[in-house]
Design a protein that fits this description.
Shape: elongated
Radius of gyration: 24 Å
Number of strands: 6
Oligomer: single chain
Number of domains: 2
Order of helices and strands: EHEEHHEHHHEHHHEH
Largest sheet: 4 strands, antiparallel
Strand order of the largest sheet: 1-4-3-2
Helix content: 40-55%
Structural class: alpha+beta
Strand content: 5-15%
Length: about 240
């Protein structure tokens, strides 16, 4: 699944004719729609799905301002087709339509930020961007060790998240995944140094929600929502799930 643009990702019909995207958009339909066609790459022709959804008015205005500034920087005037296309989000996917509906494809794309957050946490909390060595062998060994530590930390974080659920405060509160990851890494670091242990962490568990919780935001905890949604899909299609590219 990739975000695309009609100008940079030409599509064609089954008969080999170019896809007239603007004509397709001008047809009556909902704010989210789908078109099945073909694309050519490296001499091969492959079936794809074009999934498009209309942006919110505020996002549409921002997208059109970006397109206008880009055109002005290049010394040209923004065209009507470019202005019309800027109000839509375009996705190209090869996911099976029988399993991944239009709404599911759009939801998975919006949930991509959770993947970026994991990389961001690994970079900042595990300091993957501060490797000093410039030799390939030592860099690879360091990265492998850090990834192993991260996997160990993830098991501790999952354990903490499970324990905190029944002991959470009755007041509305959401456990911060970022603070929880920081606590898990600190526990791992102190455990290696012999100054702290998971047993000590569990003894302090009743007091942890005060420091790890945060008031619920208007849109809710996205990571927990995404996890629940994916788990439900895995139960619905246990043998037919495809990898999201």
């Amino acid at each position: 699944m990739v975000r695309s643009h009609p100008a940079t990702f030409p599509l064609e019909t089954e008969a080999g004719q170019p896809c007239k995207v603007l004509c397709w958009l001008r047809q009556r339909g909902g704010s989210a729609r789908e078109w099945h066609g073909w694309c050519r790459w490296a001499g091969q022709r492959s079936p794809v799905r074009l999934v498009a959804t209309q942006l919110e008015p505020t996002a549409t205005r921002r997208a059109r301002r970006r397109a206008r500034r880009k055109a002005q920087k290049a010394g040209r005037t923004i065209t009507a087709p470019t202005r019309a296309v800027a109000g839509w989000l375009w996705l190209i996917t090869t996911l099976d339509a029988d399993i991944w509906s239009t709404a599911a494809v759009l939801y998975v794309y919006r949930a991509r930020w959770q993947v970026a957050r994991v990389c961001k946490k690994m970079t900042q909390l595990r300091r993957l961007n501060q490797i000093r060595s410039k030799h390939r062998t030592s860099v690879e060994a360091t990265v492998r060790a850090l990834l192993m530590a991260w996997a160990w930390h993830e098991s501790t974080t999952t354990w903490l998240r499970t324990l905190l659920s029944p002991t959470a405060s009755p007041a509305p509160m959401v456990v911060s995944r970022w603070l929880l990851s920081g606590l898990g890494l600190d526990t791992l670091r102190q455990h290696v140094q012999g100054r702290w242990s998971e047993a000590r962490l569990q003894a302090c568990l009743p007091r942890l929600p005060r420091f790890l919780g945060s008031p619920p935001r208007r849109r809710g905890p996205q990571e927990a929502t995404v996890r629940t949604w994916l788990e439900q899909r895995a139960c619905t299609h246990p043998h037919r799930q495809q990898k999201v590219a």
